Amino acid sequence: MSELDIIALEVPILLTVAVGWLIVRIRLLRASSADVLNTLFLHVFAPALIVSLLAKQQLASLLDIPFILATLLLMLGLYGGLFLAHAVLLKRTLAVSAFAAFAGTKFNTVVVGLPVLVANLGHHAIVPTIINLVAAYFTILPLTLILSGIPPSGSARGTAVWGVVLAAVKKAITHPFVVATVLGLFLAGTGAALPVWLDKTLLTVGSAAIPSALLAVGMALSAPSIRENLAEIAGVSAVRVILSPALAILVAKLFRLSPVFAIALVVSFSLPTAKMVLPLAEEHRTYVKESAGIIAVTTASLVAVVPVVIWVCERLWPGFVGAVALTGP
Fold it and tell me: Number of helices and strands (H, E) in the chain?
């Protein structure tokens, strides 16, 4: 596949993001209007798409052990490295260190990841997307909530920690994406086919997931002041979109992943920081300005980083980018 072919695959994604940005710039809608799209995406569009696509999968195909292990190794390795760098070297608090690690590790799995992966790998992308989603929601998300909720000291510390742990688990298992994934896995495992009318309804509703997500990214894209936290924002952002995909290539080779899963791993770990990091930081009143800056910088980098990463993947695993997308599920 030529460089022009790769660019052609990314143009619809980038143009849709640009349309969202333009809508706000010409004041057709406010940036805050993206919250409506995000809510619909989170609770309606994406869950419908996840259930519909997962129900058609063979359960065995979802249990790609090498990809699961590679994902966990990368995710926990990056998180641990960033946490220790902040807690030990920079002498930051547990909460600040946890959120710095979360901002540098939690990539935008569905809102950005799903459209990008589907555009390049077709509906085969749903499997690695779901694995990435579940891995994050049951590892680094609860870990961040637990670490940031631990009191500095005091006799009630043990009781407080258990309360934080239970809250973190509840938050993970009740997330709409996780609920939709469990339902989809159940259907895939039992072989129960959805009624035709329901399947078509889910696909129709789910087809709005990708354009709505990309429009919301463009509408919400802003450039908060990053001067006062420039070094922190630049450092964590570099880990997110430069170091992470480079390590992903090494891990993909180490685990000898199939080309589709290898490309999915590398592209996923080049994605921008998830927007969910900011509301969580605001809720804990920790690492707020830094999170906003990291999200803005890594999201803006999407324009330059993803086409380069796709180009590299095509050189390492030729013949799979675009070709898989064209063949469909």
Answer: 20, 0
Burial of 123 (0-12, 13-18, 19+ CB in 10 A): middle
* 228: Cβ contacts below 8 Å, ≥ 6 apart: 289
Indicate whether 168 pLDDT > 80.
no
Q: Residue 140: pLDDT above 80?
A: yes
H helix intervals, 138-276: 140-149, 157-173, 176-190, 196-206, 209-220, 230-238, 244-254, 259-268
What 3-state class would DSSP assign to 86? Answer: helix
CA-to-CA distance for 298 and 110, rounded, in angstroms? Answer: 15
pLDDT at 224 over 80: no
Q: How far apart are CA 138 and CA 193, in angstroms?
A: 28
State whether residue 84 is helix, strand or coil.
helix
Residue 83 CB burial class (10 angstroms; 0-12, 13-18, ≥19): buried
pTM here? Answer: 0.76
At which residue do the structure tokens 């909460």 appear? 95
Q: Identity (one letter) of the amino acid at 317?
A: W
Give the sign of the dihedral formed by CA 145, CA 71, CA 312, CA 12.
negative
Q: Locate 199 and state its tokens.
A: 């399947």
Q: At residue 113, what is the residue type? A: G
Pair of tokens at residue 18: 């640009």
Instruction: Please report where in the chains the tokens 């992308």 appear, as a residue.
Output: 125
Residue 36: both structure tokens together: 């409506």
- Domains in the chain, CATH or no CATH each: 3-327 (1.20.1530)
Distance CA 268, CA 108 (A): 8
| Angle of CA points 17, 295, 113, to nearest 5° | 55
Q: Which two tokens stand for residue 46?
A: 């994406």
Tell me how far apart the alpha carbons of residues 262 and 71 are, in angstroms, rounded to a whole number.
Answer: 10
CA 12 from centre of chain:
19
